[in-house]
Design goal:
Layout (H helix, E strand, L loop, with lengths): L18 E6 L3 H11 L10 E6 L2 H10 L4 E5 L7 H11 L6 E5 L5 H7 L3 E4 L4 H20 L1
Helix pairs in contact: 1-5, 3-4
Length: 148
């Protein structure tokens, strides 16, 4: 885990703003692909990313409930709890839930992602450019909302 809720949103040594991103997938290869796609930062105008990686639904819910996260990336193909169901739960239960990117199994699953209240979706196989652009868009939304 790259960050903890206590340090999420800020880099402890320098106290500079970081982009705190939760990454949920039971598949280590999917988590690695997302981290590689986003890199140190999803776009030049955004802060560096601090990752919180989780592989279980319970850990994801606990991390979001603790607060301090800017963007959530949920794998819709995770088992036994998929990212779409988890997204719906978080959107229903967490006040001011951070924006959510759901990684869907195929483009035809986009209608189900609408039901889950996902803010954006990217289908598998993951296009690194699409993943980085989606994370950047959601981060901008969150950071602009926090500035108001």
């Amino acid at each position: 885990m790259a960050s903890t809720p206590a340090t999420a949103g800020h880099d402890a040594p320098s106290n500079q703003r970081v982009l705190s991103v939760l990454l949920y997938s039971d598949d280590a290869d999917v988590r690695a692909a997302v981290r590689l796609a986003v890199g140190r930062r999803p776009a030049a105008d955004l802060p560096a990313v601090a990752w919180t990686e989780v592989a279980t639904e319970a850990a994801a819910v606990a991390a979001v409930d603790a607060g301090g996260l800017d963007v959530l990336v949920l794998d819709g193909e995770a088992v036994p709890a998929g990212g779409m169901g988890l997204c719906k739960q978080l959107k229903d239960e967490i006040y001011h839930c951070p924006p959510v990117l759901v990684l869907i199994g195929r483009p035809a699953d986009a209608w189900l992602a609408t039901w889950s209240r996902a803010d954006l979706v990217v289908p598998h196989p993951l296009d690194p450019v699409a993943v980085a652009e989606a994370v950047a868009e959601l981060a901008r939304r969150r950071l602009q909302g926090a500035a108001q």
